Amino acid sequence: MNRQLKNKLFTYATWIAVILSTTILFFLFGVILWNGLPAIDFNFLSQASSNFGASGGIIYQIAGSVLMVLFSALICLPVAIGTAIFKSEYVISKKLHAIINTLIYSLNGIPSVIFGIFGLILFVNILGMGISWIVGSIILAMMILPTVTLSTYHSINSIPTVYRESSLSLGLTKWQVIRKVLLPQGFSGAVTGLLIGVARAIGETAPIMFIATAFSGVAFPNSFSEPVSTLPTHILALAQQATNPDALQNAWGSSLVLVTLVVLFSISALCFRLKHQTISKR
Amino acid sequence: MLGSTNKIGKYYVYSSTLISAFVVFLIFIILLLNSWEAISTIGLDLISLSWNPAKGEFGIISMLYGTFVVTFIALVIAIPLGTFTAIFTSEILASKYRFVVKSVLELLAGIPSIIYGLIGIAFLSIWFQDLFDLQSGRTLFTAGILLSVMILPTIITLTDDAFHNIPEKYRETAKGLGLYNSEIIKEVLMPIARADVKSAILLAFGRALGETMAVMLVVGSIDKLPSPLLNWLSPGQTVTSKLGREIAETSFRSVHFSAMIFMGLVLFSIVLFLTVLAQNSSKKTERLYE
């Protein structure tokens, strides 16, 4: 086989792979849109679900999902910022840095269902908090912690050393430097990370399905210790009665709403990142 | 006064780092403590074939087998497909479209796994049922195919980065020597990008092992090894689908519960090992070429 032929074959192989990947991609988006759009109307978005999800809308599912990720962001933020400051400003030894990195990446790699059983054992059973949405928020906060920490770390770490040195020489204490000089910058990184994290958290099913949600008869919670219904778990419940065409229709509708929420969070993360480029670029 | 806020700030920073670091250990300890009962009462019988809680048999082999078969199918499809697509986006496609491709891939990676599961139930399993004339389309093979679609964006986007980070001068030099495009990619770029590609694959491997919702919906959920062993068009069970289906119905602190947690612990350890491996693999090349 000569070189030219090999080159041609290679190019063909690449093209086949691209066409296949693109087909899969269009199929996925197409299916979600094609099946989801007919299910969605104003009633679907504004009513409570009834008849085990086969009729009615998904207003409480949307509310439950948003509530849960909102609180997970609130829980995650202070810890993530603290860890990022430590990693960027306090650690000198390379070894400690590597250990912290390994821990953060390990946390990021843990399968979502493991978080679920961890929450079930620790919060629901040992601490006796019961199946409640706040447990779900805590677990989701743990899941997005690495994303937010790394994003914050990168934006703090990219601030040139000159800024730290000149503010220190003006007589500021280390904490004042962090608070007045570094944090305003780092905050944009934290928000970007949070938006990416929330986009991931809102679609997670496995970690919350046995610790935070109930399927039917759930309205907006009045306290921290009540279960809610969320979009992903709603889709799961509907998907398991896939022989019922009405339920399936509503499952597609909920999927489209969920994907739209994910896309919204991802796009705002992107816009935020582009708007707040760090000063090091200048 | 100034000194005290300085101290408070320091305490805050230290304690939040401790919390972050503590989480991984806490998860490990909780899993270990709760699987201890199964390890001590069942012992080596955990590594056997039959899972039957009523008879007190808790063998996790068939679940582990399912997990590895499903992951194997996914990787066998996604690695070549993903690598070739990444070579296209990085080396052949004009770089002004790169932003679009990257954004679309990011979107694709962001589709929640439950929606993949829904697509698997509504389309894939029905197609396979008709295509192979099966009793049910929910099989190990279906789960593997679905999983390959799910990890495809991860592999494409990380491999694309690996190729894109190689300085232009390598390509120009190789071109100047009269090499064809395919030769440049195979002989020049691939060796440089190899470590990063390897870490991308390891990450995808880890993700595939831990994927729950989509697999759980299409794998069939039967705790048996297929017979014959390589008949992957039969229903099976993975560790994650077993946990997802059964854990909520198992009473806390029973041997049954403990055996399930042991399964989780095994999965946790494997995925952790892969993550650390992936991280080390990409770290070595940090300053290889400049």
TrEMBL record, chain A:
Q: How does it sit in the membrane?
A: Multi-pass membrane protein
Highest taxon of source: Bacteria
**Could you tell me the keywords of this UniProt record?**
Cell membrane, Membrane, Transmembrane, Transmembrane helix, Transport
Q: Where does it live in the cell?
A: Cell membrane
Q: What's any one GO cellular component for it?
A: plasma membrane
Q: Does the keyword S-adenosyl-L-methionine apply?
A: no
Q: Does the keyword Cell membrane apply?
A: yes
Any one GO molecular-function label of the UniProt entry: phosphate transmembrane transporter activity
In its UniProt entry, what is this protein called? Phosphate transport system permease protein PstA
Question: Organism, per UniProt?
Answer: Gillisia hiemivivida
UniProtKB/TrEMBL annotation, chain B:
This protein's record includes keyword Transmembrane: yes
TM ranges are: 12-33, 58-87, 107-128, 140-159, 200-222, 255-278
Question: How is this protein named in the record?
Answer: Phosphate transport system permease protein
Family, similarity comment: Belongs to the binding-protein-dependent transport system permease family. CysTW subfamily.
Per UniProt, subcellular location reads as:
Cell membrane
Q: What does this protein do?
A: Part of the binding-protein-dependent transport system for phosphate; probably responsible for the translocation of the substrate across the membrane.
Molecular function (GO) terms for this protein are: phosphate transmembrane transporter activity
- Positions of the ABC transmembrane type-1 domain: 64-278
* Membrane topology recorded in Swiss-Prot or TrEMBL: Multi-pass membrane protein
GO biological process, alphabetically ordered: phosphate ion transport
Q: Which gene encodes it?
A: pstC
Q: Which Pfam families match?
A: BPD_transp_1
Annotated Gene Ontology cellular components are: plasma membrane
Q: Which InterPro entries match?
A: MetI-like, MetI-like_sf, Phosphate_PstC, Phosphate_Transport_Permease
Keywords for this protein: Cell membrane, Membrane, Phosphate transport, Transmembrane, Transmembrane helix, Transport
